[in-house]
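Reopening: 3-hydroxyacyl-CoA dehydrogenase NAD-binding domain-containing protein still failing for me.
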Amino acid sequence: MIENPNEVVTKALVRSVRVPGLDKPVALITLDNGFDHKKPNSFGPAGLKSLDDAITAATAADPAFIAITGKPYIFCVGADITGMPLLSSREQAVELGELGHRVFARLKDSTIPTFAFVNGAALGGGLEVALHCHYRTVSSGAAALGLPEVAIGLIPGWGGSQLLPNLIGIAGAAQVILQNPLTQKVLRPKQAKEMGVADALFEAADFLEDSLAWAAGVVKGEVTVERPEIDRDMWDGVLWFAKNQLDEKLHGAVPSANKALELLALAKEASFADGTAAETEALADLIMGDEARASLYAFDLVQRRAKRPVGVPDKSLARKVTKVGIVGAGLMASQLALLFLRRLQVPVVLTDLDQERVDKGVAYVTGEIDKLVGKRRLDEGTAAKLRGLISGSVDKSVFADADFVIEAVFENLELKKKIWAEFETIVKPEAILATNTSSLSITEMAADLAHPERVVGFHFFNPVAVLPLLEIIKGEKTDDATLATAFAVGKELKKSSVLVKDAPAFVVNRVLTRFTSEVFKAVDAGTPLDVVNEAFDPMGLPMRPIALLQLVGPAVAYHVGETLHRAFPDRYVDSPNLKRIVEAGLPLLVDDEINTEVVKVLEVGDTVLTGDEVRARALAALAEEIRIMLDEGVVAEAQDIDLCMILGAGYPFHLGGITPYLDRSGIAEQVTGKRFLPSGLANVRRA
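Support: Ran it again with your exact input. Result attached.
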């Protein structure tokens, strides 16, 4: 049997349970890896063997029924992906697929009724083992259910692609297997019940007892489970629509999505044996492919490195934050106020130039709190508390007892220096002064202060409530206590924080601006906007360049570009056409097409590049810039740049961020003479 020396084994523990009304006891299998919910159950080779042994023992006892459940809060979150990079051959990948299929099929083929009591999170192989059971209940407290494999370059490889569409229909299955993973969504318990993934929904408090009683009713014939007839006439039409959507969004760049489509099509008529055999072959192909290896690398960054940022001072140095001050009351400042209020639940006070602006900012926050109550994402008691903690004033002295002050005003260095000079005389000596600047120097901002050591960059990404990245920037004189406090606050805000050196535009904006700079070099030379816009389709980026520019805002992009052009005039262009676009104030896209009115304002040369040439030049520029950033020590390692691009710019897992793609395409070596990642780290090879 294949082995994973790093596997945290999830044991399948069998016990006999007496249920009122049944003549024979019930065999209850509990999945438990011996840790709390912070280390979820998963299936590696040893875990699958334990489940296999448990099914054997349960069957031998001849129970009234067999049920499988999980430890508190967790059912099972799928395959143990830590072992996948260790697979060195396709044969091993096939063996892993076949092992899961063989063990799970015992539940499906059992002559004794089988039940899954989904008490907590059930993802990937965890949901698949539940689908193999004859019946399923789900707890209202289960955090998430889904088949997210496509998002990490794989497919549901243990029966999910064949069982789910034949249980809930092709439309629902396509949503769970394709749409949800690619939009980072999961099913909630109520939705799972409504779609037919689960047969019954019970409250968390008495979930196991209620599930056992319900299952007893099914076995005795007192409870009838009705499932809708599957409409096979619409099968092909749903998949045709799904393929068109995928082609439009991903342009064929994500093999796992295409494989999933093929398997869903097969599920319409194929036998279960043939369908699962195809699953195994598809899974093996993908596990050994570049995109899956890059996806697993990206997944590890998000799940591990993001939670343990590199270079952070000892957390014992962090100061307690009991009050937050926010300079400004505009939209960004108001979003920050709401975030600090919800996560820290301490007094938050806004200031601005006049009472009207202050009132508008406070009203925004209370309005958003009301919306959260209306959506049942916040109870009225907590909402009332939060409303009592938010306030605003034009009197800056309200910051006198604040422990953490953050400014979110216009990107102008002199303005920010003036603000800090004024507030330094008001706040207490140990208060942290944080700036949400997207590109300006923290060191210069603090240069004239009496205590520059307490100034730190705290760069959020818009929308603040959605994007998880927080770039924490250390100025030349920022001390360890300030940094430790900044990271502690970032953790309380539930953000993934990365330590960044004080360098122009930091990480995400520097990389994206170099990208935009190369795009507009091509435009200025004479390449049509639609050509540069479609040039990166083969990479499967989340947005085309012009759509990204429209989202960021041409004026913001131009401003950051100016900052970087001043810092690095040899690499960042001051594009006259980007300036014309800003001055025109026209939307770049109309109905997702290039606005012809924008094209008219451009003044271009006669050098027309192909899409391949645009892409090659832009990627070479990114390789050059990332190498320079690493040599400058902007971040500790290339992994931090990938993490920033994934969490702050939405770069897809199948690219691994950016550096694995530059490595495997050979661009990194061509441009810089070496790879970014140590051999084997992302397990990608040169194409």
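The longest strand covers residues 11-17. If you still see a failure, please send the error message rather than a screenshot.
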